[in-house]
């Protein structure tokens, strides 16, 4: 039987690249996201390997329905790639849109925990060798102006992953928090409300991680020997360097 991976956010960026990588290498993929036409493209590209299911991470009922709709020949599930998510807005507090905050919490936190909850029975059927890869971000550890709620949702992913490991202890299921840095995708276009020019500009003069780099990392994690659990993996492009904390001069204070 071929192994199966369930991917959230398969319509773009990391999720689309991971769908292609796994399907090209003989895994079956349940590809989920809201944009049906993009799921259809993936299905057309890999007819026997990709099954697309429309799913909205912000609605628990939608996640339940998606899991119910998994065809029998795409069960049980060997790997859950909890990847779907987003950042909205770039302004520091208080110049923010509360609706953005709510959407990030509902998607990056509630969506991820509801997906995990609904998929666990199918992962437990595989047990030893199964894995959950949760996409966090370096933003959970390195603060930046405007990162406010986005970074905090990813801190949740970091700690939830560690706690989930303790709750699934004895099932054989591995849990990893995968925390990427600067990576090219549609992330910045979404964050800026559809500014694809800003998206291109963000990556134009540097060499970011590419979605395929993340796909390869997930592939490595999912195919490690069954007794190996990578708890946290932080990945940055060579061009990105974490800096020491900033110290303000007295005259730089506004009050
Ligand atoms: N790019 C980076 O620099 C970077 C760095 C660290 C972490 N990350 C994280 O990596 C993950 C993937 O992002 P990406 O960079 O690949 O960005 P992306 O190209 O914008 O892809 C985001 C994916 O999330 C899905 N999504 C968003 N809201 C959703 C919802 N309500 N329901 C279902 N799916 C939803 C989108 O699908 P639909 O719109 O079709 O629903 C899309 O497939 C995110 O969790 C992001 O926070 C990104």
Name the shape in a single word.
globular
| Mean of residue pLDDT values | 97
Number of domains: 1
Number of strands: 7
CATH class: Alpha Beta
Determine the fraction of residues in helical runs and give it as a percent range.
40-55%
Radius of gyration: 18 Å
Indicate the low-confidence ranges by residue numbers.
none
User: Which compounds are bound in this model?
Assistant: NADP nicotinamide-adenine-dinucleotide phosphate
Strands of the largest sheet, in order across it? Answer: 3-2-1-4-5-6-7
Per DSSP, the total helix count is 8
Looking at the overall shape, the CATH architecture is 3-Layer(aba) Sandwich
CATH superfamily membership: NAD(P)-binding Rossmann-like Domain
Sequence of secondary-structure elements: EHEHEHEHEHEHHHE
What proportion of the residues form beta strands (DSSP E)?
A: 5-15%
Which key terms come to mind for this protein?
single chain; 255 residues; alpha/beta; Rossmann fold; 7-stranded parallel beta sheet; binds NADP nicotinamide-adenine-dinucleotide phosphate
Concise synopsis of the structure shown:
By secondary structure, the chain is an alpha/beta fold. Helices cover 41% and strands 14% of the residues. The protein has a single domain, classed as Rossmann fold (3-Layer(aba) Sandwich), CATH 3.40.50.720.
Provide structural commentary.
- This protein has helices at residues 13-24, 36-45, 60-68, 98-124, 148-167, 187-191, 196-204, 211-222; strands at residues 4-7, 28-33, 50-54, 79-82, 131-135, 174-180, 232-235.
- The chain is of the alpha/beta class and 255 residues long.
- Helix 1 (13-24) links the parallel strand 1 (4-7) and strand 2 (28-33).
- Helix 3 (60-68) runs parallel beside helix 4 and helix 4 runs parallel beside helix 5.
- The longest helix has 27 residues, at 98-124.
- The protein is globular.
- NADP nicotinamide-adenine-dinucleotide phosphate (NAP) binds at residues 8-9, 11-15, 33-35, 55-58, 83-86, 107, 135, 137, 180, 182-183, 185-187, 190.
């Amino acid at each position: 039987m071929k192994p199966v991976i369930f991917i959230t956010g398969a319509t773009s960026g990391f999720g689309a690249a991971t769908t292609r990588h796994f399907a090209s290498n003989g895994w079956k993929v349940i590809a989920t996201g809201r944009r049906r036409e993009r799921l259809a493209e993936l299905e057309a590209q890999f007819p026997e390997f990709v099954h697309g299911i429309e799913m909205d991470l912000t609605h628990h009922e939608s996640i339940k329905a998606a899991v119910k709709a998994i065809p029998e020949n795409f069960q049980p599930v060997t790997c859950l790639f909890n990847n779907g998510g987003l950042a909205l807005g770039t302004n520091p507090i208080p110049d923010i849109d509360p609706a953005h905050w709510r959407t990030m919490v509902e998607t990056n936190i509630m969506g991820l925990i509801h997906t995990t909850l609904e998929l666990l029975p199918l992962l437990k059927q595989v047990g030893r060798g199964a894995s959950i890869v949760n996409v966090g971000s370096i933003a959970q550890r390195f603060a930046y102006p405007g990162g406010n709620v986005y970074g905090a949702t990813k801190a949740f992913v970091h700690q939830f992953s560690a706690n989930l490991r303790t709750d699934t202890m004895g099932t054989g299921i591995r849990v990893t928090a995968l925390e990427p840095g600067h990576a090219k995708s549609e992330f910045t276009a979404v964050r800026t409300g559809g500014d694809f020019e800003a998206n291109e500009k963000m990556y134009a003069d540097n060499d970011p991680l590419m979605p395929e780099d993340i796909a390869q990392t997930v592939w490595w994690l999912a195919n490690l020997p069954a007794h190996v659990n990578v708890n946290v993996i932080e990945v940055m492009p060579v061009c990105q360097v974490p800096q020491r904390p900033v110290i303000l001069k007295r005259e730089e204070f506004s009050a």
